[in-house]
Amino acid sequence: MKRLSLALAAMLVLGLAATSFAGDIAVKGSTTVQPIMQKAVEAFMAQNKGISISISASGSGDGAKALIDGSAPLAMLSREMKASELKQAKEKGVNPKLILIAYDCLTPVVNSSNPVKNITLAQLKDIYTGKITDWKELGGAGPVSVVSRDSSSGTFEYWGEHVLKKERVYARAQMQASNGAVAQVVSKQKSSIGYVGLAYAHAPGLRALTVEGVVGSVENTLNGTYPISRGLYLYTNGEPTGDVAKFVNFILSDAGQKIVASVDYVPVKGLKDAKGAQKAKK
Fold first, then answer.
1. Which residues pair with 104 in a beta bridge?
2. Among 194, 192, 103, which Cα is nearest to 143's?
3. Separation of alpha carbons 81 and 75, rounded Å
4. In this structure, what are the phi and psi dihedrals at residue 117, rounded to the nearest 5 degrees?
5. Which residues have CB under 8 Å from 274's CB, separation 6+?
6. Using one digit for the tens of pLDDT, what is the confidence trace for 265-274?
7. pLDDT for 84-118, tens place per residue?
């Protein structure tokens, strides 16, 4: 799980909220999906010299807005579009089409100096709702500094629903705009805890916690044992056509799915095969 390039690791620690390339096709949205898209765009443009693609990553909410207002034909989301977003899209004549490209497991991370190695879902909920405020309750020491994604993030939405069970996040939580920003803060603050997409979990200065004794990994997402897993998506306005369709097809091809695996996310084909194998055993 330490296959991130030095360049990408540096980007994560710097906490960049957006990466851009000049181009003809704009892709906007989730910072969780960004590592997949960055490598996929580089490979795709190398094979298709006449097509250029720009990436801007600042949160799933911004991706949905960009698709709705027409500023991007491709939106990256780490959650499905909300009913309110779908309503806005319909009012503007936009027909969002969901395209599943990968799976991810959300990973709680602490500073590498923190002795705590495992955490339960109940403990995560208590930390993020302000009920646990000192590491001594979990085998560490000192006050807990809570780091969270901000409300424009699909990661924040998923965490709030599946970990906080829709309770309010702790009022003193430090809200960050990207996975990289969370990684940066946690790597510098010894008492902090954050949560990031799997591709960001092994940046310098971080320790990924196991959840309920299970390691967040591709393998444990495939076998269904890791408890905080989710889909990663692209959205287009209706059925993709032209160069957009060509790029989407590349992401879903064997070559594109190998890129998904290369940045420590879970290929869609692999998960489908795993589910099929599990059903066959029953």
1. 230
2. 192
3. 10
4. -120, -25
5. 222, 223, 224
6. 999 875 444 3
7. 999 999 999 999 999 999 999 999 999 999 999 99
Residues 234, 178: Cα–Cα separation, whole Å: 18
User: Could you say which of 204, 222, 240 is where a domain stops?
Assistant: 222
Tokens of residue 16, six digits: 């960049």
CB 78 within 8 Å of CB 104: yes
Identify whether residues 126 and 209 lie together within a single domain.
yes
Q: What is the pTM of this model?
A: 0.80
In the structure, how many helices (H) and strands (E) does the chain have? 11, 13
Kindly state whether residues 97 and 51 are assigned to the same domain: yes
Q: Total structural domains in the chain?
A: 2
Structure token digits, residue 275: 């589910």
The span from the CA of 68 to the CA of 89, in Å, is 5
Tokens 């990924």 — which residue? 208
Q: Where are the alpha helices (DSSP H) in the chain?
A: 6-14, 34-47, 60-69, 83-91, 121-128, 154-162, 179-188, 218-222, 242-252, 254-262, 268-281
Cα–Cα distance list, 98 to 10, 240, 252 (Å): 31, 11, 13
In which domain, by residue range, is 166 found?
106-222
Is residue 22, in this structure, part of any structural domain at all? yes
Q: Is 138 left (phi over 0), alpha (psi -120 to 50) or beta?
A: alpha
